[in-house]
Write a structure and sequence with these properties.
CATH topology of the domain at 33-264: Beta-galactosidase, Chain A, domain 5
Largest sheet: 10 strands, antiparallel
Bound molecules: 1-deoxynojirimycin
Strand content: 25-35%
Shape: globular
CATH architecture of the domain at 33-264: Distorted Sandwich
Helix content: 10-25%
């Protein structure tokens, strides 16, 4: 009896001790727990509440995020309660680095950093670090799991990162389970969101523009955001494996960066390079072999059902057809010709063979001819989503193309799940895509990745990752049963998917008649097709139409003149979902190019040319919607005219319904 009492007393004392410890943790007062952007406007504070760690964010004193919790559900127990802060460190960073290709040459990487060491006071006794970097245009943070005895191999069942907004902002996003991210971005208040993919862009009532996304998605699952349908809080939702786990990890381990761009205007969202700054610098060393370019392809013909991918009477990849395309590319100075449907396997889309051409595709003859014409063949690896089949041939596949001088390969993953099982944006998919980009780099091959995981800025580290799809591109105007992309689509894409990196949208349709599916078509005017070459950024840009639709059309001059590599980008004017104007300076000359597009409404745009060099005069060649142009009834009329302008000129241009204007400014 006596010893039992003693036991009870001991337990009671222990309990008191733990409660005391807990109270202490609850009340943990922290020092140096605030980090501000270099210009002092954005501020992040971390704290402990009921033994949970949170962060909150303000800009110029205005709340951007209310206290938002951080943590994980691990298979071996949660990493969210019983937390205390052990240590906080601060540092600064400022450098300017150069992009081998991009929307501008120089990028400033300027931030203040706060690292927070967090201790798990549960029986598991684990630790992790949260690393915050605050820039003048937003912030990023990631979790790090240092090497430790109590956490070696572990499984993340859920990441509990929250974004707790003070108001129910308007947002633009696509549902998380949209196949290959090929959806229409829809406006919704936060409180109406189910689970959506990032980038998620928001506009607050007070006129702030915010985008949540991630940077450097490596060895992890893509982050989506789940709403709770009652508040304006969003919580990370990682794409799961087919077995339900989210991430298999081994310490030391780091998550991707969770990022938020905070801008005072929609225009400024597009100029943020925060995502690139949060990726590692170039790992490939000499990248002089990496070259942006504009190309044509044996492609739209398949989508319009004029040609087939598989061999047969209408086989698109027939040698003589490819030679014709090479002649055309050479005549109009395109850098390459994409050829799809060249290799065996298109009959069943399952077991593609990446070194076995169809007999009517003479790769030697084609590539020798291309070389003599200063054009390159752009390769294609459609995998049908069978990554195992592809990986088993990967190095042979690249070596094969390399032997014939092919240095760009478009990859594709059409198929509901990878290997019939895993989601494209799962950790499984992320591993696969990385492997392909790295393997391609060994062969000095550039990649254009279709059906990707959402891009997160990896091109900074691996600059051979040129461009990606992950967008409802122009091909939907060939075969989508809903009739094609609506006029507003391309006025939203630059502020959503476009913020994740280069977009292989493939504008450039000149013939609006769809013989395969008459009610489906491109919902733009011809002038808007030209403007999209500037508006939607891609260092490899395909003029998508069949060559017979370009020849002898004077509007084609804009496509053949428009560069794909820029020394500077400005966004003079935009309203998400309504219109956008972008101007870019050619990297190889003093010339500027401008594209302005509108949704289904006509509008007069005032183009303030203050971006031009104030000491120079320019000849502006203007390609604008002609009389009575209308995307539904009369898409072709286009006026091509020239004017002398300078940086003080304000051009006033009428845009038709779903119309546009494209301008070349040549320095005089
Ligand atoms: C879908 C891609 O987006 C498209 O560009 C390609 O032509 C087809 N898959 C076939 O690979």
């Amino acid at each position: 009896m006596m010893s039992l009492n003693k036991e009870i007393k001991k337990t009671y004392l222990l309990l008191l001790f733990f409660v005391g410890a807990l109270l202490h943790i609850n009340a943990q007062s922290l020092k140096n727990n605030v980090v501000k952007s270099p210009d002092g406007t954005i501020s992040i504070e971390i704290g402990i509440y009921k033994s949970r760690i949170f962060y909150k964010v303000t800009k110029k004193g205005k709340t951007i995020l209310n206290p938002s919790f951080l943590g994980f559900e691990l298979k071996d127990g949660a990493l969210k309660d019983n937390l205390s802060v052990q240590k906080i460190s601060h540092s600064q960073f400022d450098e300017t680095w150069k992009q081998p290709w991009g929307e501008e040459i120089e990028v400033r990487n300027h931030y203040n950093e706060m690292k927070v060491w967090v201790k798990d006071n549960s029986i598991f006794s684990r630790e992790f670090i949260i690393d915050f970097k605050v820039f003048d245009d937003g912030f990023g943070f990631r979790y790090e799991f240092p090497k430790q005895k109590s956490l070696t191999e572990f499984v993340i069942m859920d990441e509990l990162t929250e974004f707790n907004f003070p108001e129910d902002h308007k947002t633009w996003s696509i549902p998380y389970n949209t196949e290959f991210y090929e959806g229409l971005y829809k406006p919704n208040p936060i409180s109406k969101l189910d689970t959506v993919a990032t980038p998620l862009t928001m506009e607050s009532k007070s006129g702030l523009f915010l985008t949540i996304h991630e940077a450097n998605l490596t060895d992890y699952a893509a982050m989506n955001l789940a709403g709770d349908k009652k508040s304006s809080k969003l919580t990370a939702f990682l794409t799961p494996w087919s077995t339900g786990e989210k991430v298999f990890a081994k310490a030391p381990f780091r998550t991707p960066w969770r990022i938020m761009i905070i801008a005072d205007s929609a225009e400024d969202l597009m100029l943020s390079r925060l995502m690139l700054n949060l990726n590692e610098p170039n790992k490939l060393g000499d990248v002089s072999w990496i070259k942006p370019g504009r190309y044509i392809g044996i492609w739209w013909g398949m989508h319009m059902k004029k040609y087939t991918w598989e061999a047969g009477p209408n086989h698109g990849a027939k040698t003589e057809n490819v030679l014709k395309y090479i002649d055309f590319a050479s005549k109009y100075k395109f850098s390459g010709v994409l050829v799809e449907g060249w290799n065996k396997g298109w009959e069943d889309w399952k077991s593609f063979e990446f070194t076995q051409p169809y007999p009517d595709f003479d790769i030697k003859k084609i590539t020798d001819y291309a070389k003599s014409k200063n054009v390159t063949l752009i390769g294609h690896h459609e995998t049908g989503g069978n990554t195992k089949n592809y990986e088993s041939q990967l190095s042979d596949a690249f070596a094969y193309y390399k032997k014939y001088g092919v240095d760009v390969v478009k990859t594709g993953y059409v198929g509901g799940k990878l290997d019939g099982k895993e989601l494209h944006s799962s950790q499984y998919g992320v591993h696969h895509y990385r492997k392909v980009i790295e393997e391609a780099a060994k062969y000095k091959i550039m990649i254009d990745n279709h059906e990707p995981v959402m891009p997160t800025g990896l091109q900074r580290t691996l600059p051979n990752l040129m461009t990606q799809e992950g967008v409802r591109g122009q091909e939907w105007d060939a075969w989508s049963k809903d009739g094609g992309n609506p006029p507003e689509h391309t006025t939203i894409v630059p502020f959503t998917r476009g913020l994740a990196g280069p977009v292989d949208f493939t504008p450039g349709t000149f013939n609006f008649t769809n013989t395969a599916l008459p009610n489906t078509k491109v919902h733009t005017t011809l002038a808007k097709q030209l403007a999209l070459s500037v508006v939607i950024y891609s260092p490899l840009q395909m003029a998508s139409d069949m060559i017979e639709n370009y020849e002898s059309d004077p509007a084609f001059e804009f496509i053949t003149s428009c560069p794909t590599d820029w020394s500077k980008t400005v966004v003079p004017d935009a309203k998400i979902g309504e219109f956008v104007t972008i101007a870019r300076k050619d990297k190889a000359s003093e010339n500027w190019f401008l594209g302005s597009i509108t949704n289904k409404d006509t509008r007069t745009v005032k183009l303030d040319l203050k971006f031009l060099d104030p000491n120079k005069k320019y000849r502006a060649k203007i390609f604008r919607d002609g009389k009575d142009a209308d995307y539904e009834t009369n898409p072709y009329p286009i006026i091509i005219e020239e004017k002398e302008v300078d940086s003080k000129t304000i051009l006033s241009v009428e845009l038709a319904r779903s119309g546009g204007v494209a301008i070349i400014f040549s320095q005089l």
